[in-house]
Amino acid sequence: MEELNKKSDNVAAMFNSIAAKYDFLNHFLSLGIDKLWRCRLVKQLAKSNPRQVLDIATGTGDLAIQLAKHHKSVNITGVDISENMLSIGREKILKRKLEERINLKQANSLNLPFADGEFDAAMVAFGVRNFEDLSKGITEIHRVLKNGGSLYVLEFSMPSRFPMRNLYRFYFRRVLPFVGGIVSGSKSAYTYLPESVFAFPEKEKFVEIMANAGFKNCSYKRLTFGVASIYVGSK
Ligand SMILES: C[S@@+](CC[C@H](N)C(=O)[O-])C[C@H]1O[C@@H](n2cnc3c(N)ncnc32)[C@H](O)[C@@H]1O
C-alpha cells in the first residue's frame, strides 16, 4: 500500500509541476482534437439524462465544464489528486459562472470519499492510465455508481494499421517529449506520457478489466483512426 501511495504522490507531483502549462499543451499537442473527443463522450453520456455525475481525474475541469454547458440540469463533482490542476480548474469554473453546478475536490480514485451508489454516471478522460492500480480504481468507480448508472472512459489507444500506427508511435516517442518538455519545463512528465500510453491495457483488455470490476454490457468505440477510444459499461 505504501508503494501505491508513493506512486500516487509521484503522479500528483508531476501534474502539480505542469499544471500551469497543461491546458495549452493539451490542445496544442492534440491539434485541438482532444476537445472533439471530450464532446463525443459528453453527448453520449448526456443521453441518459443523469443528475449527479462524477468526473474522475478531472484535472483542470475541461470535461466537467463541457458536460455542464451541454446538459443544463446536471451537477458534477470532479476529483483529482493534483491540487494545482484543481486550482486552475476552479478558476475556469468561476470564470464561466458554473460554481453552483461543478464542485472540485482533492481525492484519490482508489479511495473515493463518497457513499455507495451516489452517482448516476461517472466519466474519466485521459485519467485511468495513471491509476496505480487500474482494477482497484475501476472497482471503486463501480461502487459509487447507482444500479443502472454508467461509466464512460476516454483514453488514448494504438491505431492498428499502417501508416497511422507508425505515425502515432513517432509522435508519442519523439515529438511529444521534445515539445512538451521544452514548453512545460518538465521533460520527465512528457516522457512519462508515452510510457503510460504504451503500457495501458487498451481495447479488449480494458473492456475485460471493466467487466471484472462488475460492469455489464462493456464496449468500446475507436475515434480518429483508433488514436483514442471511448469505453462504456453499466452497473
Ligand atoms: C492527463 S490529465 C487529464 C485531466 C482531464 N481529465 C482532461 O481531460 O484534461 C490526468 C489527471 O489524472 C489525475 N490523476 C492521476 N492519478 C489519479 C488518481 N489516482 N486519482 C485521482 N486523480 C488522478 C492527475 O492528477 C491529472 O490531473
Question: What does the model show?
Answer:
Strands 3-2-1-4-5-7-6 form a seven-stranded mixed sheet, with helices on both faces. The protein contains eight helices and seven strands. The protein is 51% helix and 21% strand. The protein has helices at residues 2-29, 33-46, 62-70, 83-95, 134-144, 164-184, 187-199, 203-212, and strands spanning 52-56, 75-80, 102-106, 119-125, 145-156, 216-223, 228-234. Helix 1 (2-29) packs across helix 4 (83-95), helix 1 (2-29) packs across helix 6 (164-184) and helix 2 (33-46) crosses helix 3. The longest helix has 28 residues, at 2-29. The chain is an alpha/beta fold and 235 residues long. The chain has a single domain (2-234), classed as Vaccinia Virus protein VP39 (Rossmann fold). It is globular. The model has no long low-confidence stretch (mean pLDDT 93). The chain starts with a helix and ends with a strand. Bound molecules: S-adenosylmethionine. S-adenosylmethionine is lined by residues 8, 11-12, 15, 26, 57-59, 62-63, 79-82, 85, 108-110, 125-127, 130-131.
